[in-house]
Automatic annotation (TrEMBL):
InterPro entries, A to Z: Methyltransf_11 (IPR013216), SAM-dependent_MTases_sf (IPR029063), Thiol_S-MT (IPR052356)
Domain Methyltransferase type: 52-147
Pfam (any one): Methyltransf_11
Species name: Candidatus Vogelbacteria bacterium CG10_big_fil_rev_8_21_14_0_10_51_16
CDD domains: AdoMet_MTases (cd02440)
Name recorded for this polypeptide: Methyltransferase type 11 domain-containing protein
One of the record's GO molecular function terms: S-adenosylmethionine-dependent methyltransferase activity
Amino acid sequence: MGYIPKFFRLVRRFGLRKAIYRSVVFLWTDKEDTVYGDYKRKHFVGITGDIVEIGVGQGANFAYYHNVGTITLVEPDVIDRPELDAKIKALQAKEVVVLEKQFEAVALAPASTDVVMATLVFCSVADSIRFLDKIHRALKTGGRFYFLEHIQAKTFLRRLLQYAVNPFWFFVSGSCQCVKATDRLFAADPRFKVISQEHFCIKDGFPWVRDHVIGVLEKKEVDDQGEGGVVYSKQACKIIYT
């Protein structure tokens, strides 16, 4: 029952759309480890060195960081600052930098980090190809990109539901889209080596965001296309997202 008065406080402070989004985040944060914990413990292992995490949320991935250097946390919409601050202080890192801005606006030096972490982020990214390109540039050779995303459904009926719901979902969920085939985008990028990748379907949550992919990509030593990697055409983009 405590969520109801909290929702109305959010409406007064942020307006209806952001209040709905933040309420969904509050509710989901309580269940995140139950839903994703087993998959993360399988794939998010051996994370060391300097880390850039995009879309930190409430720090659900902090438990997987061990023997780390500098952690850069990119989060444009901090939901609960005191809770996040407490989790940050518990991190055993040399330095933690919090950037309250969109990842697209963050200036990262090329080949400057060992790890990039992004979970449930690409669904709300306007240009996924450029976003992944920026991640690739920031990683050192051999650096790893850890990801967890909900994706376009594998069955026709679930995809039909996703496309029907998507305009409403985009409005109420912070620009999230449930129809993006992000797994195909990752698999098609020749600049990365796939270390692990697993598709799974959860039983909790809304039926249009139950199909997921989790895994790890490693930046290859040599880019066949030279500095900056592959140049994707609009035609290739359409192939990825059908």
